[in-house]
Amino acid sequence: MKKALLMFLSLVLALVSWSSVCADDGFYVVPSMRGNYAPVPKTGQMQPYVTGDDGDLHKGVAWPTPRFTDHNNGTVTDNLTGLIWMKNASNGEGADGFGPLTWTDAISAANNLHTGQHGLNDGSKTGDWRLPNVRELQSLVDFGHTGLALPTPNPFIGVTWEIPYWSSTIEAGGTDYAWFVSFDLGVVMSKARSFNYLVWCVRGDR
Q1: Chain mean pLDDT for the chain
Q2: Which residue, 83, 88, 99, 167, is CA-closest to 121?
Q3: Could you give the count of Cα atoms lying within 13 Å of 164 in the half-sphere of its Cβ?
Q4: 132 lies in a domain?
Q5: pLDDT of 84-103, one tens digit each?
Q6: Domain tally for the chain?
Q7: What residues contact 162, with CB distance under 8 A and at least 6 apart?
Q8: What residue numbers bound the domain in which 126 lies?
């Protein structure tokens, strides 16, 4: 019985990482599963305004240096998230970009994107690209900037603050609406899917 108990405890300790926590009324131990968490990155805000605000504390996972890698084939990797983005943020129309599209057309354009279009020379095939979800799109926002709320320096071209960018995320409270990100202030809002907004395609599983 004692041997079986020891084996059981060994198995538990192999699966679980234990961390000690100090409480007001004593000392206790809290289990946390290894790797079962999603680290939250820094916002990019560096200017403090009051003690204890974001610009003072700088909480979150530090951005890598360099933040972005330009592959010189129309794609850019964000070294923070591992996501691969179009270098051309599709501000223009025709050969230079998609131009503003309805949400349905934005989904279709992203799904059908491939090498040879809009400055891409990465060997990608139809189905490799997609419209980013709202969290992925917002991950590009630098809350320390305004006018164009992106980390600097960055290698992207065609990014605009004047027209928002569609995400692939539908608003749960009204399925005729979808979420978008404006790179003026980094605002995330929803709008009717019939509106014409911009498309910034992404590759990768994260």
Answers
A1: 86
A2: 88
A3: 23
A4: yes
A5: 999 999 877 777 788 999 99
A6: 1
A7: 184
A8: 61-203
